[in-house]
Amino acid sequence: MGGLLVLLAAGLIGLISATGWQETRAQLARLHLWQIALLLGLSLANYLCRALRWHVLARRLGLPTGAVQNIRHFLGGFAMSVTPGRVGELVRMRWIRRETGWAIARSAPLALMDRAGDLAVMALLLGGAISLAAGGIAGALPVTALALAAAIVATRPRLLAALITQTYRLAGRAPRLFARARSAARSLARFTHGPTLGLVLGLGLAGWLAEGYAFHLLLGWMGADIGLAKAIAIFVFATLAGGLTGAPGGLGGAEAAMVALLSLDGIPLDISIPATAVIRLTTLWFAIAIGLAIFPLAERAARKAP
């Protein structure tokens, strides 16, 4: 993770040096404190919508936890966002096990459904934004299709169980692990309740729309208004592309995709680079800061649990 951060910083510094430090500073100087506060507020709206979604899913799964517990688990997990594939966020399952006695295999569908909800909503947002935006985004169609396919598989208990079974037949190892995975997949049937799915998708849509709108505002403030639909499409595509790399928090991949797509749309580097840096600071790194603040509280509560 440290190496990735160093490489990311070196890449951004190199790009800024190539475009000129004065130009970059001038763009950053155009932003006022109230504008940064608004960006952070929209990011916070995203996290709260998704935390409420986590609570809805936890109640549907039958977890004996309250709203405060569930929101604490969800937000505290952001502290582990910068782990490969974001697997560190499974610390939420650890807190649940300590506080409720539920085995990780029993609560795992909650994390799976949460991630599937993000994939489904982001795929829908990307597809809708591309259809409304002038021009298109190269490579957006396969990324959208892949995200939707992953979301469909993850929310279809029989399909996911069959896929796990087929994978076990090919691997021929760890039968106990695959058996637990199949059991977790079957428990996803609890989430196929129509009103629950509608609420889950609605909360996710509202949350990710808030961050996409924040990116649109930021570009406008920097003098590069490319339209709401195109801004949302670039933001969502870059986020998905970064996630597909498996790098911690999508570091490197998301930033590279964002700068490249903005450049292809005619936005100069002296705007695209600071815009990318600011939106990542007010989204990913703001989430990590929230997680780091709540993480010790969640750890303390989990240790005190009987």
Helix content: over 70%
Give the distance, in angstroms, between the N- and C-terminal Cα atoms. Answer: 35 Å
How many structurally independent domains?
Answer: 1
* Quaternary structure annotation: single chain
Rg from alpha-carbon coordinates: 20 Å
Rounded mean pLDDT score? 80
Percentage of β-strand residues: under 5%
Largest sheet: none
Determine the structural class based on helices, strands and strand pairing.
mainly alpha
Which stretches of 5+ consecutive residues score pLDDT under 50? none
What order do the SSEs take from the amino end to the carboxyl end, as H and E?
HHHHHHHHHHHHHH
Number of strands: 0
Gross morphology: globular
Number of contiguous helices:
14
Task: Please render the helix and strand layout as text.
Layout: H1 2-19, H2 21-29, H3 33-61, H4 67-76, H5 91-100, H6 104-132, H7 140-154, H8 157-171, H9 175-186, H10 194-221, H11 228-244, H12 253-264, H13 269-281, H14 284-304
Helix pairs in contact: 1-13, 2-13, 3-4, 3-6, 3-10, 4-14, 5-6, 5-14, 6-7, 6-9, 6-10, 6-11, 8-9, 10-11, 10-13, 11-12, 12-13
